[in-house]
Amino acid sequence: MFFCLFCFFLEKPADTPSEEEDFGDPRTYDPDFKGPVANRSCTDVLCCMIFLLCIIGYIVLGLVAWVHGDPRRAAYPTDSQGHFCGQKGTPNENKTILFYFNLLRCTSPSMMLNLQCPTTQICVSKCPEKFLTYVEMQLLYTKDKSYWEDYRQFCKTTAKPAKSLTQLLLDDDCPTAIFPSKPFLQRCFPDFSTKNGTLTIGSSMVFQDGNGKTRSVIELRDAANGINKLLDAKSLGLKVFEDYVTTWYWILIGLTIAMFLSWIFLILLRFIAGCLFWVFIIGVIGIIGYGIWYCYQEYTKLQEHPSSVLTIYDIGIQTSISMYFELKQTWFTFMIILCIIEVTVILMLIFLRNRIRVAIILLKEGSKAIGYIPSTLVYPALTFILLSICICYWVMTAVFLATSGVPVYKVIAPEGNCIHENQTCDPEMFNTTEIAKACPGALCSFAFYGGKSLYHQYIPSFHVYNLFVFLWLINFVIALGQCALAGAFATYYWAMKKPDDIPRYPLFTSFGRAIRYHTGSLAFGSLIIALIQIFKIILEYLDHRLKRTQNTLSKFLKCCLRCCFWCLENAIKFLNRNAYIMIAIYGRNFCRSAKDAFNLLMRNVLKVAVTDEVTYFVLFLGKILVAGSIGVLAFLFFTQRLPVIAQGPTSLNYYWVPLLTVIFGSYLIAHGFFSVYAMCVETIFICFCEDLERNDGSTEKPYFITPNLHGILIKKQLVPQKQKE
User: Is the model's pLDDT at 526 over the cut of 90?
Assistant: First the structure.
């Protein structure tokens, strides 16, 4: 499979007269060559068949997961019987909140082991609003029946008010005590407050637990912290999902603005490339400068006015992620990072100023090509649609796989001293089994959704397959776009009289050729990238699982592997892009095209840095400007700093969830649009190198490159003089 990687490094013959022949013979003049070859055949058929079989298997996997999965299990809290809270069409339709019988048990060590608080959990319509024990309710019940009506909504449907406390504990029908609570993440949590700097609940620092013991509010806080750790492990995705539900339309608006801004920049590059470059520079430096100023303001504010009031963060109800934004060290770190980026950008502009001028001229030449083939500006929208389909299918398949199965119940002991703990059980028969007798107080509670069928046993493997095919499809869509654009721009370059000799619909023709003849070659190249990416993900997964057992040597090896995989991935991506250009021009298989592209680049190695790295740097500034501009507006909007223009959402768990989504999405959109220019410049460069080898500029063998660009490249000494025959 990796044979093509070794095609680049052929053994040097013993009688090689010069270094140039190490990388193949230069192209020779061919009077019949007029650009991309029309007569071609299918390439890499075997890889094409494997790719299609994987797609069919991927579709089948999605259908099977859709049959077995239920996304409601990830969106709704579940009681001890495995029933959803608040799900329409169920007995709990009007009971949207999960209530814990004894929250103090959530400090048990078994909680984090089983990801389940070892106490009975039921669905309720509202949380308790006052202190009341079961014994107190019985005393008041003789005088006023309404006390039982208020108390029974936090009991099972089979509960009765005449039971003794001992019988109540044995049957586990009601909580022994209730206390003031409020809903948070669809769960009843203690309603903590502060009084003169002291933590209280319901204006009290102590309360009765219903078992004859007096408990302090600190114990209840520790239990809340315990259940919070559980929520961090199970419900962080739910909070993020809630933020997406609240802000999805604002996110779409921000991404739409980013798309139009990128489009405007591409059109302006056609006419004012030099001026627009300075707009990029000033804009990027200004955005980074604003970030430095804002971080400094936050750092100064936290340093001068440290928080001394007990807040919900001190209690631990919020996740630790948000707490970082309350620390001055966080903003100081951000400020240092932005300062380093600012200085780096300025230094690169100083040292690369001459090459940047050449890169701007190349962008102007690319603008002419895009001006003659305007459909290339629309193609990123098609790529965006295809990528969105792949991402949505992957997410939905992953969700349905994760929620596949039937309810699984396990034994949970509050004290953690039961030998049968964590064993599967049947809740309907549990009280009559030997386990209930051997472990008094043990519960048979819902644990998770799973099963013992063949399908459920291979769900982890299906997750890996889902991720791998997703990466393969994503890279294939990108490769298809690169090959189609390369064919269109190669058609432009090899037209002697522009635009008269450019055929009609060059992009459509190139796209059709890539799909019809070279699906296998594109799948081959994208497969290599997908394998490298899956190895990187496996490395990160192992690092996460073994983080506590790492020593200095293992951390060093981990960093080395990360660096090696990063270098390998970027090197292969660079070679693949040039291989796709060769495929679009000559129609050969992937390995042959990769070898020809590598040899051509090595024969012109002095010119690669200008056309690739410097040009990409200029375009990278444009991407940063688009993402940074939209990011600043999104930050001001989601933090309620633009009330004059529009009122942003006020009920977000984390404002940085939609903010980072908008920034990352804007960068991807800008990358998709600016990649048209990058592919145009790279294709022109490959064709230019071929042109120099095929022709000499004479009347019989004229250059296809425009005289202006050819003269500038020669003047900058980026093109070595051809050897005299």
Answer: yes
